[in-house]
Amino acid sequence: MKHKVNKGEWAELYVFLSVLATGKLYAADEDLNKIEEAYYTVLQAIKIEENEEKRYSRDTKKNLVVIYSNGTKKISIPIADFLNFGPIVLEGIKNGTGRSFEIPEIEEFLEQILVDKIKASSDSKKDLIFQVHDEFTGFKPQIGFSVKSYIGGAPTLINSSGATVFSYTTEGNLVTEQFVNTINQIESRNKIKDRIEHIYTHGITLKYIGLSSNIFSRNLQMIDFRLPEILANLYLSSYFVSGKKMTDVVKYYVKKYNEDEQLIEYKIKDLLTAAALGMEPNTHWDGLEDANGGYIVVKSDGEILCYHIYDRNKLRTYLYNHTKFDTPSTGRTGSGLLEFNKNTSEATFKLSLQVRFS
Predict the structure, then answer these.
(1) Which of 24, 251, 297, 304 is the most exposed place for a label (fewest CB within 10 A)?
(2) What pLDDT, on the 0 to 100 scale, is given for residue 31?
(3) Which residues contact 326 (CB under 8 A, 6 or more apart)?
(4) In sequence order, which ranges of 96-139 are alpha helices (DSSP H)?
(5) What confidence tier does 125 reach under pLDDT thresholds 50, 70, 90?
(6) pLDDT tier at 36 (50, 70, 90 boundaries)?
(7) What b/e sequence results for 62-74 when a residue is b if at least 16 CB atoms lie within 10 Å of its CB, and e otherwise?
(8) CA dihedral of 354, 12, 130, 321, whole degrees rounded to 10
(9) Do residues 116 and 229 share a domain?
(10) Please, what is the average pLDDT of the chain?
(11) How far is Cα 258 from Cα 238, in angstroms, rounded to an integer?
(12) Domain span holding position 350
């Protein structure tokens, strides 16, 4: 069976093979630098495919990875093979073209090690599950990790979708249908920013009135009841901040809205961490973290690092310092358009949220 998936999904396989090869998962500091003395010792990897649980157990005495299916031993593979095929996947990712692609050189090995599916279930933040030796407790827990890869470009943390659309109403001067048409016809390179600026220069402001998804709104309120409004105004503010870096946008926002910077920073770190470890915009979230082990990052050169759940402050700081607001395609969600209301001489403006790593 040939596998055709995107770069992020191939990166999950790269981590799977590489970590089984080395048996170590190194920690990162706040700036994604390796901490040599801090790592998880990985004992085995677990893949769950429909009704089958596969365990890939490292036997370091015999230099083998022993593969079990639902508790029954199936085959033993030299650890050296995992070490050899990891770089092949890495090169395949770097050279891959299109939204999804194949890596033919890996197919025979995947069949040999009984990998039928590369991508984990889409309703889970657990991209990979490892059993580790926990140096803090001496236990050997089975824990899930979320994976993000910089190979081929910076990944997204929160993807734009129909669930992430903020709506704003016009306030101040009344608008006309002709004015709305003029705004929507602006097609410059930075058209959304230029449309917002054109609205403001006519004595009109934009006030947040709601989110397209009640689920996403509620998920945000699980973190903080004011967060939908704060995030909406942060995202609107981002169009006036060069580079849209999260840290810079927060500084701009707190000055404009006279907010407490430390308080807003804390709330946004909570949001980013929730998005990294458990919360999806259009899935009812109970506040728990699905990726209970932490966060694995694949750097552009293939180095694999992670933020342990014990190092939560490092993860929070990394996410805050290395993310930015993004401008997604406007076609799918109607983002960046004014919608005229003849009855009130007001209009509604929409922006679809996307957060990307920087």
Answers:
(1) 24
(2) 93
(3) 156, 160, 244, 354, 355, 356
(4) 104-112
(5) low
(6) very high
(7) eebbbbbeeeeee
(8) -40
(9) no
(10) 92
(11) 16
(12) 162-289+313-357
Q: How far apart are the first and last CA of the chain?
A: 36
Same domain, 83 and 185: no
Q: In terms of domains, do 111 and 184 share one?
A: no
130 vs 120: CA distance, rounded Å: 13
State yes or no: pLDDT of 168 exceeds 90. Answer: yes
67 and 86 belong to one structural domain = yes
pLDDT tier for residue 335 given thresholds of 50, 70 and 90: confident
- Domain count across the chain: 2
pLDDT tens, 220-270? 999 999 999 999 999 999 999 999 999 999 999 999 999 999 999 999 999
Alpha-carbon gap, residue 273 to 278, rounded angstroms: 8
Q: Kindly state whether residues 246 and 340 are assigned to the same domain.
A: yes
As a 3-state breakdown, the chain gives helix, strand, coil percent values, each rounded to 5, of 35, 30, 35
